[in-house]
Amino acid sequence: MAELKNIPGYHAIFTLDPAKQKSNQFKSHLRLPPAELARVEQILKEMWEEVVTKQTGFEAALLGHLLQLLILLSRKYSETSQSKNRQAVMRIAETIRILESEYEKQWKLEELASLSNTSPSNLNRIFQQATGMSPVNYLLQVRLQKAMSLLTSSSFSIVEIAFQVGFNDSNYFARLFKKTIGLSPSQYRKMQLMS
């Protein structure tokens, strides 16, 4: 399922659009041509049939249909990003995709801006507007989420986890983890393993 996040339109349509619509800042709509709309309707019909008939394996079939739907919508959103507003959203979505897939890299704002084809100050401004945080803070949140997952699913030491998720200083990692999560990494690991 992590592969979905590599489709350019995924973050735009499922992360950024809902946040913008809640704050009434974004009025973009995904308009599907008749052929794609018919395909969406067909997928939804097949999903409904699975729910009604509940044949063996219907949950897996539902998941397959849902993935088809998400991929179709994400791809279509990427293809139709012509308006200036949608292009800005796609730049932010691409930055999010990069940060989530290459979180261990030591990113500089200038590098991200270059990849997003914009200036560092513009990227910072539109990213902040779209997500409520700077690209740097977003990256720190992604790294902490990855660390939380590794703390509960691996036997790596806390120092190893810090380096694996992109922190060059394990003490800084531990301080940030405690400040953000409310527990030290070792306390978090212990608590998760007990539950």
What's the quick description here?
The protein is mainly alpha-helical and 195 residues long. It contains 10 helices and no strands. The longest helix is centred in the middle third of the chain and has 22 residues, at 58-79.
Structure description:
The protein is mainly alpha-helical. It has helices spanning 8-22, 34-53, 58-79, 84-101, 109-115, 120-131, 135-153, 158-164, 170-181, 185-194. Helix 1 (8-22) packs across helix 3 (58-79), helix 4 (84-101) runs parallel beside helix 7 (135-153) and helix 8 packs across helix 9 (170-181). The chain is flat.
Q: So how many helices? A: 10
Q: What value does the average pLDDT take?
A: 84
Principal-axes geometry comes out as: flat
Strand content: under 5%
**Could you give the distance between the termini?**
26 Å
Give the structural class: mainly alpha
- In the predicted model, the low-confidence regions spanning at least 5 consecutive residues are none
Helix content: over 70%
**What's the count of strands?**
0
Largest sheet: none
Order of helices and strands: HHHHHHHHHH
CA gyration radius, whole angstroms:
20 Å
Break the fold down into its secondary structure elements and pairings.
Elements: H1 8-22, H2 34-53, H3 58-79, H4 84-101, H5 109-115, H6 120-131, H7 135-153, H8 158-164, H9 170-181, H10 185-194
Helix pairs in contact: 1-3, 1-4, 2-3, 4-6, 4-7, 5-6, 8-9
